Amino acid sequence: MKKAGGKTALKRSKEGDEEQNQIFNFNRKPADEDKDDDLSDSEDSVYSGLEDSGSDSEEEEGSDEEEGSDDDDDKMKEKKEGEVSEEKKKDEYEHDSSDEEDIRNTVGNIPMEWYKDFPHIGYNLDGKKIYKPIRNKDELDDFLDKMENPEYWRTVHDKQTGSDIVLSDDQVELVNRLQRGQFGDVNFNEYEPMVEFFSSDVMIHPVTNRPADKRSFIPSLTEKEKVSKLVHAIKMGWIKPRRVEDDGRGRYYNLWASEDSSILARHKMHLPAPKIPLPGHHESYNPPPEYLFTDEERALWEQQDPADRKLPFVPRKYSSLRQVPAFSQFIHERFERCLDLYLCPRQRKMRVNVNPEDLIPQLPKPKDLQPFPTTRSLVYRGHSGLVRSISVSPSGQWLASGSDDGSVRFWEVCSSRCMKTVQVGGAVKSVAWNPNPSVCLLAVALDSVVLILSPSLADKQVILSSERLLSAQQEGEEPAEGNGSVVWSEAEGEELNQGLRLKIQHPKAVHQVVWHAKGDYLASVMPDNTSHLQVYIHQLSRRRSQNPFSRNKGLVQCVSFHPIRPYFFVATQRSIRIYNLVKQEMTKKLQTNSKWISSMAVHPGGDHVICGSYDCKLSWFDLDLSTKPYKMLRHHKKAVRGVAYHRLYPLFASASDDGSVIVCHGTVYNDLLQNPLIVPVKVLRGHVMTHDLGVLDVTFHPTQPWVFSSGADATICLFT
């Protein structure tokens, strides 16, 4: 039985080899030629590795030896049987159309790595081991094979049998088609017309004619029970119905659909696109003649930049509408419109319907702010030149004026009578009455001299105290300036009879003179960019002079003393500096935002300053608030020449080259949180424009709400 079994196994293995080769032998040769090769191959594959690898058990070794001896005895018999059965096999497998996989190895669909440590690679149909073929190839042999074997690129390794298979051309084409994502069958048509089993045509006979069930006409009791349970659960609150959340996916909205105002009203920031302006007469194919371009207009249109042209086209005239050609700029115009729609930002202007009168600040009426000067009461005539400066005595009874005719006149305020005229021998730039009521002195600035006059227009007691102040010179004291740039001298002879008492000689022309509130100090201004000697402060009782600044920052225009505190205001061209005379340091710098300051006045309370400028501005500063103007008034048409505060009433005035004096009401509150109330109340006109000059100086009466103004027409006006 063992012999027979061995022969049967051998035969089956041979048949399996033939079948395998018939399936995987892609370089097909005739069966006769490959007969011997197949036998040898199969013997190799079955019996390969018997010497190399040991068997699993001793019984297997014994059976293998017996099988080997049986084969040696019956070789001749096998040859005969092989020749007899060859014809059979040839007929049997000639038309084999089986396309199944190689089923000789029966291990199934498992990873072949599990057999990598065993000498066999699986089991055949009879349960015998299929041994691995002898492979002595290393990487060098593989490389040589790669270089020399022209079929190397189409050779694949079969893991189930451990052999190399050479693919045919059809198989390579099949692999390429599958790699390209095409169908394996070349003749398969993926675009075949669909066979409509249920066509759109209504057929005479139904597909099924089975009568409907009875249950399709009766409501379902099961569903009714389920629905009633759900309704009860919803009523009890056990089930809360889900809100349908529309995520908006798969929905597409037409943005440019007809815009419904009710829908768009819900969008707070919706801004409708501006409509294209409707075509006018220029766009007409037969416009009126006045809309057609002349030759000059056509040439001008062609020279202009396209962005600057009023019309993007030239109007033309056609006899009929069918002769009008297509607009060449149509696509460009549509494109520009699209760009405007999605690129130009549209901003919502929150237009508030406000009554224009509500925007005007609620100022009090001028008649509620009386008293203030309204009418020209008196005109003081007598000067023959420009009256550049005026000053009122502390008592309010006398008025002093200095003119370009070289005279200083003293007027009685109530009667406009000239009480005294003093010829000083030069154009008077500035006059200032001593504010101390116990003395009667006047400072006059002309050329490079400051004169101290005693007009003797008071009672004897005041005149005596004035003389005593002038004669109280302390011997042995030198002026503060060591180089003697300021020289004090007494008047002599005829000058004494006219009222001159002292002369203060300066190195340069003096433009302004101003007194301290106590009446012992006065300051003089000499505008000069080239020198630091621009401001001097003189002490009358000691006859001393000093220059408070080692250097001046800018061209000094005017100065003023603080009415209460030891502060000194210096106005340069564009700013006002405030100095502390005790600490000898600058405490504040006011930015006027003006081009050129002309005049300055300090409020009697000391916390507010006004300054006029040649660029028609009047600036009010609140010193506690900011270094920038609290209010800018631009009421004048020409340069502002002079400004003044009233000592008692909440009034201030400004004089300008336009020939007017504007009186304003300026209430200053004790409450620091409340801003000053500034109301213009009256425009006063009384001077005639002369040589493009109007009003040159303005000052208030010390006790009455009256204002004096001096003009280029050589007159002085009193407004009450």
From TrEMBL:
InterPro entries to which the protein is assigned, alphabetical: BOP1/Erb1, BOP1_N_dom, WD40/YVTN_repeat-like_dom_sf, WD40_repeat_CS, WD40_repeat_dom_sf, WD40_rpt
Bias kind Acidic residues: ranges: 33-44, 53-73
Bias type Basic residues, positions: 1-11
GO cellular component: nucleoplasm; PeBoW complex; preribosome, large subunit precursor
One family name in Pfam for this protein: WD40
Disordered as annotated region, ranges: 1-104
Chief location of this protein within or outside the cell: nucleus
Record-annotated BOP1 N-terminal domain positions: 115-373
Ranges for the WD repeats: 380-421
A GO BP annotation: maturation of LSU-rRNA from tricistronic rRNA transcript (SSU-rRNA, 5.8S rRNA, LSU-rRNA)
Similarity section: Belongs to the WD repeat BOP1/ERB1 family.
PANTHER family: RIBOSOME BIOGENESIS PROTEIN BOP1 (PTHR17605:SF0), RIBOSOME BIOGENESIS PROTEIN BOP1 BLOCK OF PROLIFERATION 1 PROTEIN (PTHR17605)
Function: Component of the PeBoW complex, which is required for maturation of 28S and 5.8S ribosomal RNAs and formation of the 60S ribosome.
Protein known as: Ribosome biogenesis protein BOP1
Organism of provenance: Haplochromis burtoni
Gene encoding the protein: BOP1
